[in-house]
Amino acid sequence: MSESPTFDHGKVTVIYVLGGPGAGKGTQCANLVKDFGFCHLSALPAGDLLRAEQNREGSQFGSLIQTCIKEGTIVPMEVTIKLLDNAMQAAMAENRLGDGWQDGRGRFLIDGFPRKMDQAVKFDETVCLSSVVLYFSTTEEVLLERLLVRGKTSGREDDNVESIKKRFRTYKLDTMPVIEYYTSQGKVAEVDSTGTVEEVHALAAQVVRDALTGKYSQSPN
Ligand SMILES: Nc1ncnc2c1ncn2[C@@H]1O[C@H](COP(=O)(O)OP(=O)(O)OP(=O)(O)O)[C@@H](O)[C@H]1O
Ligand SMILES: O=c1ccn([C@@H]2O[C@H](COP(=O)(O)O)[C@@H](O)[C@H]2O)c(=O)[nH]1
Predict the structure, then answer these.
(1) What DSSP assignment string belongs to 89-154?
(2) Does some domain include residue 208?
(3) Is residue 6 part of a domain?
(4) pLDDT of 57-74, one tens digit each?
(5) Of 3, 11, 27, 176, which is least packed with CB atoms within 10 Å of its CB?
(6) Cα 218 from chain centroid?
(7) Is 45 close to ligand 1, i.e. is its CB under 6 Å away?
(8) What's the whole-model pTM score?
(9) Is residue 77 part of a domain?
(10) Which family, according to the similarity comment (predicted)?
(11) 111: closest CA among 48, 166, 170?
(12) Residue 132 belongs to what domain range?
């Protein structure tokens, strides 16, 4: 028997944001939230939620998350989906004002998720059916260069050549099939993220505008 989702996708718009490690997902999500206004759009970075859980005193998942992040592997879906579901419920409970947040409505950019097919299917079924995947594509050379620059100041345990290679492998093995799956459903909007932050932003903003006006769903939010 299938569970009914926590959120009605006719009221809650979920935009998954995918792309290789260092493609610019976090940078673009932050700019999109600024652009569309905090009241209109909320960004939930899955990796940040996992890092916060890793550092939370008493977390039973701390060392599991730490190992997965260092090894570039995917944390078991139950952990990540629960964190995202909780974060979405907390955002909805804030009773935000503004377009898209009245009467049980909400709009979320879920950054860096789903990374694996099992997560994609489970989240769509049990939390909220997604509207579209905003997919940032570029070359591995560009990704590597950006990550090594970020690694000079990020303090992230996985911004080093060894972990980056593992993350690239996981991306190809686990995440590309997710992108292919949603492509076959006509739900992927690909944005070339090789250009400047501003150039990429202009393209991504159009995808979000389209998603918020119902281009990718039957019931506009
Ligand atoms: N268009 C761009 N041009 C040049 N540098 C960029 C661009 N977009 C992002 N960056 C830089 O590249 C690095 C990676 O960007 P960001 O953290 O947004 O990527 P990400 O896709 O969220 O990465 P991860 O999946 O590893 O969390 C950052 O240092 C960021 O400042
Ligand atoms: O859905 C997810 C998202 C992330 N992870 C793990 O976190 C790291 C870092 O993620 P970033 O998006 O680059 O911040 C990633 O390599 C995975 O190990 C995950 O398991 N599931």
Answers:
(1) HHHHHT---STT-STT-EEEEEETB--SHHHHHHHHHHT----EEEEEE--HHHHHHHHHHHHHHH
(2) yes
(3) no
(4) 999 999 999 999 999 999
(5) 3
(6) 22
(7) no
(8) 0.96
(9) yes
(10) Belongs to the adenylate kinase family. UMP-CMP kinase subfamily.
(11) 48
(12) 12-212
